[in-house]
Design goal:
By secondary structure, this protein is mostly helical. The chain has three helices and no strands. The chain has a domain at 30-84.
C-alpha cells in the first residue's frame, strides 16, 4: 500500500452502473416497505426488485385494460362532448 493516494480525479457513484435503471429517491409508507421486504425475503429476491416488478405489472395491466375496453355509447358521447365543446 502507498502512504498517500491521489483522489483529485475521483468520481462518486456506483462502480458498476446498472444498464436501463435509474436511481431515484421515493417516499413510501413504512408498512408497504415492510410488506415487500418480508415477501421478497420469503421468495429470495431483493425488495426493490419486487417493487419494480409490481409496478411494471401494474403498467402492463393498465395498458391492456385501456385497450381491451369496448367502445360504449356513453364513452363515445363523452369524447364527442369534449371534442365539440371548446370551453
Amino acid at each position: 500500500m502507498r502512504n498517500e493516494y491521489d483522489f483529485s480525479k475521483a468520481k462518486r457513484g456506483a462502480i458498476i452502473k446498472s444498464p436501463g435503471k435509474t436511481r431515484i429517491t421515493i417516499m413510501l409508507d413504512r408498512d408497504l416497505i415492510e410488506y415487500f421486504r418480508a415477501r421478497a425475503e420469503a421468495e429470495g429476491i431483493g425488495y426493490q426488485t419486487m417493487v419494480n416488478a409490481v409496478l411494471r405489472d401494474a403498467v402492463v395491466n393498465a395498458n391492456k385494460t385501456a385497450k381491451d375496453k369496448p367502445l360504449t355509447v356513453a364513452t363515445l358521447r363523452k369524447v364527442l362532448r369534449e371534442v365539440l365543446d371548446p370551453s
